[in-house]
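User: If only I could read backbone structure tokens as easily as an amino acid sequence. Underneath my words sits a plain record pairing an amino acid chain with its backbone structure tokens. This is the protein in question:
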Amino acid sequence: MAQRRRSDRIVETVASGIAELIPDADRAGAYTLLLDGTPQSHVDLADPTHLEFEYIRRMAAAIDLIAPPGRPLRALHLGGGALTLPRYVAVTRPGSPQRVVEIDGPLVEVVRRELPFPAKASIRVRVADARAALEGIRESGYDLVVLDVFAGARTPAHLTSVEFVREVARVLDPGGWLVANVADGPPLRFAKAQVATIRTALPSACLVADAAVLRGRRFGNLVVLAGRTPPPIADLSRRAAGDWFPGRVETDLDRFVGGAAPVTDGAAVASPTPPAGLFSNRK
């Protein structure tokens, strides 16, 4: 059963740990979802286009630019959380048919109950493992795949391999795009291997991140935009530079990868554990 604490905070045990929905003190109707103390999502029910987390804004910018404004996209979201990006797409691209795959069924129920979807949103949520669900999806069925899966604070190993990325590429339309969240820190071994892995199936790619993260100076999120046609570099660079927390677009991925090899199932590992205290200043 859910418990309500001070300031209407909701605390509930779900399959992946302790879920907390914390009201945003600055925005009425907005909440941050934490799982075992790790921020997973921020949702503004009154304005789904308000995106609090900088890496989510970078992912949204990529989604904005892969098709003309307002055009519906067939979207597959691997990893649900509080469904921040599905809500964003539902409002900015009305009529988009969207499927979300989230492994934590009790979490899905909490989100459905406490954070209703936007009116007329065409969002279907399936409770399943992301890779298992992907393998059952028909070829070329999506214009967009969003990969943002974390078990606690780490991406599971079976979602980091060449074999997995080939499945992502298989379900994408030839002109479709993968937008992936990769978390890493110095010396970026995991991120370099992930970029090399993604490019085996989706060779036209770029990275968007904080300059310090790209240089391997601190832990953070790197957003990968990858497909089979040239990405919208100029527009994405302008969006990243104009953000509240300016980011940079990296296009020289051969230099970034630096010889790192693609990762197969037999060698795949989960993403690194974030440094202690990274999320201590939570709302």
User: Anything to note?
Assistant: The CA atoms of residues 85 and 208 lie 17 Å apart. The chain has one domain: 48-267.
